[in-house]
Amino acid sequence: MAAGPHSIDPTTYVDELLAQASPDLMREILQGFINQILSTQADQICGADYATVSQDRVNTRNGYRHRDFDTRVGTIDVAVPKLRTGSFFPDWLLERRTRAERALTTVIATCYLKGVSTRRMNDLVATLGVNNLSKSQVSDMAKDLDVMVEEFRTRPLDTGPYLYVSCDALTMKVREGGRVVKTSVLVATGVNAEGYRELLG
């Protein structure tokens, strides 16, 4: 079925609102998420988690290379782990920058809308071309991203008073009790005293 002229994809809509409304917070979440994926990949190459003693370890870390990653919410400092033996180059991030940035912000918007689950996190990270992560690594990433999203949801709204506040309802399908049902998601935005739009919740 073709989408009508006024159909809106909820994830894309919230992704755009997050990028416009809270660029500092979005930049912080994006930076933490990217660095966490890179750290997890380096752990996988080394055969053991960072700073742990293991007989399975085949390599060790040797600091970081810092790279600037330009996004629509500003420049992010990406800490690429260095290895003692060999090299680690995250081509999924540094070669396909536009695609990776779009996918990463969509991951955050999806987690904001639908919550963070290990299965969803594994699927979303796989879309970036990052495969073969263990279940515990994906679970840890999901927990950390869930904490960052919850901090965004419960942040103080100290940039008020708001000149305008608007609410919009988005209809989307979700799985509930083993069935797919339609539900509405309320999105509140406000225009602060400086004229900037913020995603309130």
Automatic annotation (TrEMBL):
The keyword DNA-binding applies. It comes from the Bacteria. GO terms for molecular function: DNA binding; transposase activity. The keyword Transport does not apply. One of its GO terms (biological process) is DNA transposition. Pfam families: Transposase_mut. InterPro entries: Transposase_mutator. Keywords: DNA recombination, DNA-binding, Transposable element, Transposition. Belongs to the transposase mutator family. Required for the transposition of the insertion element. This is Mutator family transposase. It comes from Corynebacterium sanguinis.
